[in-house]
Design a protein that fits this description.
The protein has ten helices and 14 strands. With 357 residues, the protein is an alpha+beta fold. α1 (57-70) crosses α9 (302-311), α2 (110-116) crosses α3 and α3 (136-146) packs antiparallel against α4 (152-171). It is globular.
Length: 357
């Protein structure tokens, strides 16, 4: 747990030393950068303040990053913080180092790619518009326009890294991987063939943790006694589907499922099923994604991740641990079933199946 004391609007005390702060305006949460911790840069350390009790996103940030460590997936490392303002009021939050460690690294956001290359949003074969916010093929087309000389092997690496991120998002029920929350980095000295996906960041909306501690406590109690937990969690569709070309809508319906109110996107049911099937197809046909999925099954453990965090002083409530464990287990189960069904479908048309799950 990191303790930060704000002196005024542009200075804080951290570990007994005074540092300058710089406001960050993107996003709904109050944010500021701390500069000068490691260099003369203005952006060394980002602090995000919890809005109120309606969100547990800080727990989501540290839990997601700890799970990523278990499988060596690149993710920004987050820590829980307590921020004391000049009036002595203490607020919870989360902090992380800047993932751009070099002044020579140029960040290219998914948002900028989407706007600059918006003409690529259309499938020329049928004139259908592709959702630019969450589509790996769209990003790869845009990257090709950005760097026409980029090597195919580099594009393959980027594609696989994005698929791994999509898989992590699916298993953790990540609901906020829109095009502001994905970006690419290029080292200016080495040019476009140094382009890579940046570490995963802004991961706090996993495991339904953007819904608040009181809601999570309620989920924890009801999930533990729910008979059809798999079907129930399947109905918690993502608000902004990760990466594989999923159309979404902001309009929602309230439905009663096993005694619980579930928010369901009016268009997202079919999109979600397609997304799950696409992931299953990648696992069956792409050796790197298959191996990564097996690694996830063998190593991801919410209880162990929570224990690791608690030992470091980043204390995670038991209800958060319960909900996250149940969701992760359920998502593995439903994806395994989808993989099995897809293998059966493939077996009807061919005698050869690439991999065994």
């Amino acid at each position: 747990m990191i303790k930060i004391k704000k002196i005024n609007n542009n200075q804080v005390v951290l570990n007994g030393n005074t540092f300058e702060t710089f406001e960050e305006t993107r996003g709904k949460r109050e944010k500021f950068w701390i500069g000068g911790l490691y260099s003369n840069r203005k952006r060394d350390f980002l602090v995000k303040i919890d809005r109120n009790e309606t969100s547990c996103e800080s727990f989501g940030e540290v839990l997601f990053s700890e799970l990523c460590k278990m499988v060596n997936f690149p993710c920004v490392n987050y820590h829980l913080v307590k921020v004391e303002n000049e009036y002595g009021e203490i607020t919870d939050g989360v902090a992380c180092e800047n993932y751009n460690t070099s002044d020579k690294d140029m960040e290219i956001s998914g948002f900028n790619l989407g706007h600059t290359y918006s003409f690529l949003q259309y499938d020329n074969q049928n004139g259908k518009k592709i959702d630019p916010q969450n589509n790996i093929d769209f990003y790869l087309k845009a990257i090709k326009y950005l760097g026409p000389d980029i090597q195919e092997e580099n594009l393959t690496i980027i594609r696989n890294d994005m698929l791994k991120l999509a898989l992590m998002d699916f298993l953790t029920l990540q609901g906020d991987r829109h095009w502001y929350n994905i970006s690419f980095s290029m080292n200016c000295l080495f040019g476009e063939n140094s382009l890579s996906l940046t570490k995963a960041y802004d991961n706090g909306s996993c495991f339904l943790l953007n819904r608040g501690i009181k809601k999570i406590q309620d989920y924890s109690e009801q999930f533990l006694r729910c008979k059809n937990i798999g079907n129930l969690i399947e109905d918690y569709t993502l608000t902004k589907m990760p990466l594989l070309g999923i159309s979404t809508t902001t309009s929602k319906l309230d439905e009663e499922k096993d005694g619980m109110k579930v928010l369901i996107g009016t268009r997202s049911k079919e999109d979600y099923l397609n997304f799950k099937k696409e992931l299953a197809h990648e696992i069956l046909t792409n050796p790197e994604i298959y191996n990564f999925y097996i690694k996830l099954k063998q190593n991801l453990n919410v209880k162990q991740a929570v224990d690791n965090l608690n030992k470091k002083g980043d204390i995670i409530p038991e209800c958060v641990s319960n909900v996250a464990s149940i969701i992760l287990k359920s998502k593995f189960s439903t994806l395994d079933k989808t993989i099995k069904n897809l293998k059966i479908e493939n077996a009807r048309s061919t005698d050869e199946i690439s991999f065994k799950i």
